RNA methyltransferase (Flavobacterium pectinovorum), 484 residues
Amino acid sequence: MVSKNQIKLISSLHQKKQRFANQLFFAEGVKVIQELLQSNFELEHLYTTLNDFEAVQPSKRTLINEQELKKISALTTPNSCLAVFKIPAENKVIDSGLIVALDDIRDPGNLGTILRLCDWFGIKQIVCSKETVDIYNPKVVQATMGSIARVNVNYVDLKTFINQTNLPVFGTFMDGENIYQSNLPQNGIIVMGNEANGISAEIENIVTSRLTIPRFGDLQKTESLNVATATAIILSEFKRNS
Amino acid sequence: MVSKNQIKLISSLHQKKQRFANQLFFAEGVKVIQELLQSNFELEHLYTTLNDFEAVQPSKRTLINEQELKKISALTTPNSCLAVFKIPAENKVIDSGLIVALDDIRDPGNLGTILRLCDWFGIKQIVCSKETVDIYNPKVVQATMGSIARVNVNYVDLKTFINQTNLPVFGTFMDGENIYQSNLPQNGIIVMGNEANGISAEIENIVTSRLTIPRFGDLQKTESLNVATATAIILSEFKRNS
């Protein structure tokens, strides 16, 4: 059984402020929870409707029914389990290799998808502007499918961070160099901009290489790419010849 | 003002069965509606909270307030307008060039994003299995950002369709040829599989070229790519040298 206080705590973790105050977040579903358990995340408590997760010590595991799960879940169709984890201390930024810098990504699904892409392409570090959606937002955690355990994410003042590295800075713009014909190094910062406004003027000023993903459709009418699919194409280009 | 009957009709269009029975669908937001108006879609009626869309004849335009919009909108945060359009007759399949074939894509956001990608990369034709989510689902229409007006979409029996063309058939699998080292033609069918199960066995049997997108992360643990980001990478590879 899950107590009223536990329900209250988990519900409060839907809000960033409360996650920060309690230094806790939650994840749902066997796959994501397993990934987090197998990595360095410290389990606070697991709630499950099944007799699974035998490896978790009984004092940290509560069998609940589906109605109880529905009360604490952030999903419209709840999975079979929900786990509360401690938010780990931020690791030091890994300032070599390829770094993805996110300039105010607001949509949780986009951030989760970008994290999953970084994991796929072996990118070890994401730096986010302070306005970027919180990585421990339940929708982000869900969309990462467990990748959250394998990519280092830091929230920084993006301008200060970029200025203090000596890495080349890549951004995509309408007037950039054709990315398919560019020489792309294995060290550098790849900036991805906000869903509505793109890369901010402040960051655009410190971009050293302006790239573009060529369009093949009707040039007058075709909509821009979604930021997650643009990231997919850009990371694929950076890694394909590496 | 929007009448009770109009509210009832628009609400019913959230369901595929009712869209089919009425041969109507709806779109929301200035950008998407403008794109549909400028293309071949026939407007049934426009509901707007602003004095905009002057080009639309007054008999087809109703000024409504925000509460009324909330009643008919499918969005949590409604835009300023909603328009009901006639579902056009299905065009003939364009069976040359590159065709994207969707084998049971269930998520509306994924279908909308794939449509937008096809538009970007100049792919003129998508064929969907009958189990693929309906293109006139409000969430699909929204995610396409207007691209729905520029890519031809047909629902077919995928196996029969593929068998009657003489085009090469591409699919991505764990054991395929490295897509970065493959010779990719400008004619062919690119099959993308279901979110959970990938390409079905029936379709896998008629794939002529097995491809793979190489992983660069931890090979033991990294999750698969989301189908929309995989489509982005594959279309980029097919078009980059075209």
Notes: The longest helix of chain A spans residues 227-240. Chain A has two domains: 4-86, 98-240. The longest strand of chain A covers residues 169-178. The beta strands of chain A are 24-28, 43-48, 61-63, 81-86, 98-103, 125-129, 152-156, 169-178, 188-193, 209-212.
